[in-house]
Each structure stands twice: as C-alpha cells, then as structure tokens.
Amino acid sequence: MAITEIVQGNGENAPRHTSARIAWFVVIWSLSTAAFFGGAALLHLIVPK
Questions:
Q1: The pLDDT of residue 33
Q2: pLDDT tens digit string along 1-49?
Q3: How many H-runs (helices) and E-runs (strands) does the chain carry?
Q4: Which chain regions cross the lipid bilayer (predicted)?
Q5: How far apart are alpha carbons 28 and 9 in whole angstroms?
Q6: Burial class (CB in 10 A: 0-12, 13-18, 19+), 15
Q7: Which of 11, 35, 44, 45 has a Cα at 20 to 30 A from 21?
Q8: Measured between alpha carbons, how far is 30 from 47 in angstroms, rounded to an integer?
C-alpha cells in the first residue's frame, strides 16, 4: 500500500485503525531521519577538514 494511495482526496480512504496510522507515522519519520543522517554523512565525507 503506497502512501500516495492513502492521502488522496479528503482522507476517506485513510486507515481507520489507530495502529495503522501510528505505523505510517513511524515509517515516514524513520525514513526522513535516515535520509537526514545519510545526507549529513555524505556532506561530512565531501567537505574537506
């Protein structure tokens, strides 16, 4: 189930269970955090000391 399928429209197709909503939040938060640290690590490697 792609996140773009969930957020279409007014949210009528959003997951009804609170646990599913929390799971989506945790997944999105984790991926964004990983992307931030990955970008920071890459920037750290690129910028000379």
A1: 97
A2: 565 655 666 666 666 788 888 898 999 999 999 999 999 999 999 998 7
A3: 2, 0
A4: 22-47
A5: 20
A6: middle
A7: 35
A8: 26
CA dihedral 31, 32, 36, 41 (to 10 degrees): 10
- Asked whether the beta carbons of 18 and 25 are under 8 A apart, the reply is no
pLDDT at residue 18 in the model = 85
How many angstroms separate the CA atoms of 21 and 23, rounded?
5
DSSP string computed for 28-47: HHHHHHHHHHHHHHHHHHHS
Q: Specify the pLDDT at position 49.
A: 77
